[in-house]
Design a protein that fits this description.
Layout: H1 16-24, H2 43-58, H3 69-85, E1 88-96, E2 99-108, E3 112-122, H4 132-152, E4 158-165, H5 173-180, H6 184-187, E5 190-196, E6 207-209, H7 216-228, E7 234-236, H8 244-248, E8 254-258, H9 267-273, H10 297-315, E9 345-346, E10 351-352, E11 365-369, E12 375-384, E13 393-402, E14 412-419, E15 422-430, E16 439-444, E17 452-461, E18 467-477
Parallel strand pairs: 3-4, 3-5, 5-8, 6-7
Antiparallel strand pairs: 1-2, 2-4, 6-8, 9-12, 10-11, 11-18, 12-17, 13-16, 13-18, 14-15, 14-17
Helix pairs in contact: 2-4, 3-4, 4-10
Amino acid sequence: MRRPSRRLAAITVASLTTVTLAVSTQTASAGPTATLADPDISVTNTKAHLDQLQSIADANGGNRYTGKPGYKASVDWVKGKLDAAGYTTTVQQFSTSAGTSYNLIAEWPHGDANHVVMAGAHLDSVSRGPGINDNGSGSAGILETALAYAASGETPKNRVRFGFWGAEELGLVGSKYYVNNLPAADRDKVEVYLNFDMIASPNPGYFVYDDNPAGDSARDDLTTYFDGKSIPWEYIDVQGRSDHAAFRSLGIPTAGTFTGAEETKTSAQAKKWGGEAGAAFDPCYHSACDTNENLDLTALDRNIDAIGHMVWTYGAKDYGSDPEPPTGANLLKNPGFESGAVDWTGTSGPITKDSGRPAHSGTWKAWLGGNGRTSSENVSQSVTIPATATAPKLSYWIRSDTNETGSTVYDTLKVQVVSGTSTTTLATHSNVGTSSTYAQKTLDLSAYKGKTITLKLTASEDSSLQTSFVVDDTSVTVG
């Protein structure tokens, strides 16, 4: 957890009597409608993950700090575990003041991709120590939950995704990078984000985030879970100190748990939870002594079971079905460019009504190339292919002309699909075989059912002699 610029405000305490009344007044529709899941996530396995993170730190200068080899080794190790379990993993690389860092995103490739349930934790430590409670504990907890979910045979209704964030200790850099680079359409699909940061403090408390009104339903499910286990809890406003803040800023419902950092446990809290009054919840917070000996395994066990409860429950929650587009409906927005560059991104200029090249219909089109010099231009749009699509396809009309001669390829237009970190070229047009008569091309998108992809047209020209590629009246249909 990131150290605050000023001391954390006093923790808001709710008595159990008040809690019971508050929960009893909630309607059943406030949370998941099914019987709440109650998986037993293995604390033994989770502790083994923490021992591995300790070993990684020991082998890399005593820490797993952003920009240091211990952090990249942590990412690689966690990725290997998730890959082996069948997750689709993506590593995002980004720059920070301390050097290169990485986010690791793991998605269980089942369930409705239009409804995403996400759990996350930061994987980096501070530079002064191995960061086993802060935040190896949260990372190991969601890792073991992810592995248990994969092994359970559970058939999720929704898409379940896990995020392991880099550079949290530098100011939530990784989680901010993730949400800021998530297309708006994909942000809208994230139904809830659950954050777990420091869940095994050696003098623990049991805190539930209470700083996002949009996430009250998830918050209430956590408190109801703790009530059912007879575990006293308190609300806490962590004031943007952890990675849920990046999601909260976009209006995404968030919730999470926390066992305390440098704050002092009160006498009332010690009476309720045990432990030492007048001492920090974690006396090794941001210190070299935050090792695999700096853990309360009972707190860890209780919190990872809470993580499992939330992942199982929200993975099965009925968010309703998005209406399927009718057969033949065009999933692309502004497909004929008649609204200009609206709904398309890329290089400024190619979407034009310049009369130098005709449109297929109307007056606007995407005119890529035609510069007669070394250049690259592109236009793109993201689209979600329904998992139930029978024969999804991309169609477009294209005409081209060139001043090049002969059969050597100098200039190209590539029709590409970007899916995660992978870019696939579906078709390539070139200066060879150009035609000033429009022709329709159709490409198969069946490999992308159930995925959100970016369709991209990229033109590249060499240093001399122009080739113009003009594309118009695009469409993506489900079959």
